[in-house]
Amino acid sequence: MITGKYPNLRLRRSRKESWSRRLIQENTLSASDFILPIFIIDGLNKREQIASMPGVYRYTIDRLAQVVDRAVKKEIPMVALFPKIKKNLKNEMGTEALNENNLVCKAILEIKKKYKNQIGIMCDVALDPYTSHGHDGLIKSNQIINDETIEVLINQSLLQAEMGCDVLAPSDMMDGRIGKIRIALENSNYKDVQILSYAAKYASSFYGPFRDAVGSKKSLKGDKKTYQMDFRNSDEALREIALDIKEGADMIMVKPGLPYLDIIKSIKEKFKIPVFAYQVSGEYSLISNAIQKKLIDKHAIYESLVGFKRAGANAIVSYYADRIDEILKY
Ligand code: PBG
Fold it and tell me: pLDDT over 90 for what percent of the chain?
């Protein structure tokens, strides 16, 4: 593969000037590569700062336009909605997930009313923002029960589809849920609703600030290792993905992002399916706090995002998405 020999070949020649570096660059980023996560809270006219995630806020429904306007103007293709519900609405079964007046349903209606199809809406399918124990599924005798959880996830999916959600994103890691949700959507005439499967989602410490942001951190009992993947494994990720593709997933998510670039790359090579990377809350917090403390400079953001593209990601879920135009200009 080596195509020449020093001194005839000097790779530094093409690196010398900025115009030349731009000509030979292999990867680029644009607003179209991003999905913006938005945290929603109950109440009126509020925007709350999330302490562990400098620059990220929770918005009440009436203030959503503030952030969605920005995303639309910057031509970000899609937002992802995450609710922080009041503690008294949480219970063992996560029943608030099926309330047609819950925060996510209200937010979908509001965004669709105002922006129509100018921007896509993606919603998590999982119970963790709604359960008192903070797990993604139902619990019986200390076990997260798979098949019973799927029945609830189907109803959560149908409800979100009914409200106008464009992309359902099951992030619960139960076995077999993609196929069951796909069938339910087909049967209820939501044939065009897409499924973005969090197929390779690892049991990770990098979700810490997110759990803070949706208020499930303090309540979480134990860990999620019986359903999320072991970070020592990569073949297993390919098996998860193969299954979800067969079951009807339109797109695949790898999560977290930066420590799992190898997974993105091998999925892309093997399956030729759209793959998204989730630069999760912990990654965001590490970079943002380090920049604030002047341990690294702000160009680290761009560098970390390009890494996903180099690995083969089609798009990136990132809390930086609403500031991407500034970041690309650094
Ligand atoms: C829950 C969910 C999590 C994230 C997105 N959906 C956390 C978890 O699995 O505990 C994490 C996102 C982030 O850390 O930015 N189903």
Answer: 95
Does residue 81 have its Cβ closer than 6 Å to ligand 1?
no
pTM equals 0.97
Helix (H) or strand (E) holding 49: strand 47-49
Asked whether 212 lines ligand 1 (CB < 6 A), one says: no
**Spatial CA neighbour of 126 closest among 288, 255, 241:** 255
| Residue matched to tokens 């403390």 | 293
Query: Pocket of ligand 1, candidates 210, 220, 221, 285: which has the most ligand atoms within 8 Å of its Cβ, to mutate?
Result: 210
In this structure, which long-range contacts are made by residues 44-51, counting pairs with CB atoms below 8 Å and at least 24 apart in sequence?
A: 50/209, 50/212, 50/213, 51/212
For ligand 1, the distance from its centroid to the CA atom of residue 326, given in whole angstroms, is: 26
Hey, what domains does the chain have and what are their CATH numbers? 30-327 (3.20.20.70)
Distances (CA, A) of 162 to 2, 61, 106, 155, 165: 56, 19, 12, 10, 7
pLDDT tens profile 123-135: 999 999 999 999 9
Q: Closest ligand 1 atom, CA of 228?
A: 9
